[in-house]
Amino acid sequence: MLVTRVRSRFCYHEPMMLDELAEHLNALQRDDCYRVDAVLKESPYETTERVYFRGENGAELGPFVRKSIDRDAGLGGAYERIRDAQRAGRRFEHLPLIIDCYDVGDRLVVIMEYVAGETLADIVYRNDPSISLARDVFPRLCDAVGELHEGFDVPLIHRDLKPSNIMLSRDSMTIIDLGIARAFKEESDEDTRHFGTRAYAPPEQFGFGQTDVRSDVYALGMLLYFCLTEKTPDAKARREGYASEHVPEPMRQVIARAAAFDPADRYAGAAEVKRAFLEAVARSAPAPCEVSESQEPVAPSPESRVPAAAVGAPMPAYAARPSVAAFASSPRTGLLARIPNRVGIIWDIVLLLVFILFFVVTTEMVFAPEPGASGAAAPLPLRAFSYYALLFMLVSPILYLLADRRPLRRLLPPLRACTLKRELVVCIFIMIVGFFAVGISSQFFPPV
């Protein structure tokens, strides 16, 4: 009888075990269809990769983003909610298209579109913080956060809104990295897990209560401060009520209320923050802004949006949005925008070393010329004028045009108003003057 019971129990569970095994093998097979192109982020709870889908004939489609999220940490549920809503026909203008979600072991795998563009951090760094930038970007950011809160029966709270998680292009704004986003639960006193970037996260996100839509309102206040100052508020900024020479008083009041310690003292939602900001803009002095040819977010490539046929579900229609008009003009920036700021700084250091090398060689030719060299017999003032004119009026403008001038504009604010066309005209003019100066002075060199 004991053997019969054991056999009966095994037979009862066998179909369930087979279903789970088949589902697991199917997930592994789906996962193997993607080729990893780059690892974008890695943490104890999540790995983010840029991948390409490989067809049976070897053809590839992409790029896409694949996230592998630890289920035991209680993360990733927001992606499944967004996927379900999109497959039910819901269209989101500011959220990425979720292509697939499936489990591999104890990890949730999410496949989504690859969002091209620049982060808000890059936009502010490249264009420099200003009222004009905030006036153009911040209302759209409020709309994007509002869509996350109002687009579902139960609001989704992002909990990690920060400059690097806001993607902008010429005609879109997308909120990314929703790994720690959660649904609001009325019965909860506080969040089960405490995640997020501390500088942009409210106190309740770290054990002082449950997060709700006002938690993202707090982050919106921090993001507004960032757009105006390019700084993340520290303890001193909070003690001083976010006062800064770059923050007009009406906008300071908006930031202070949005980032109040007590959620009850904050704005009720993103739409209310937007209204308050627009009222503050009307009360603030207009900020003149000269459009620079280097100021343009990169436009998304056509293939960055996923064909509907690739997902087997209707693809949301992304409505065209006004460009970041005050910061868009030249296609030249499309390449520059894809170059990370760190790479640009390294490139500038290389060019600086090249200039130093030229300077050392020129100085040696001026003060210690080799006997018999051209110009060795010329008077010292004539050599100095000719050789340094060659360095500063011919070589230096070329190195300047080759440089990534984003860091230079930060150090020398007057350069922010210079367009690419104006820089080219000035550099060419200096080079022409230098050419004639070097040519004329060399006529006075004694013959060798």
Automatic annotation (TrEMBL):
The chain crosses the membrane at residues 345-365, 385-403, 424-445. Keywords: ATP-binding, Kinase, Membrane, Nucleotide-binding, Serine/threonine-protein kinase, Transferase, Transmembrane, Transmembrane helix. Its EC number is 2.7.11.1. PROSITE patterns: PROTEIN_KINASE_DOM, PROTEIN_KINASE_ST. It is an enzyme of class 2 (transferase). Residues 34-278 form the Protein kinase domain. Pfam families: Pkinase. One of its GO terms (molecular function) is ATP binding. This is non-specific serine/threonine protein kinase.
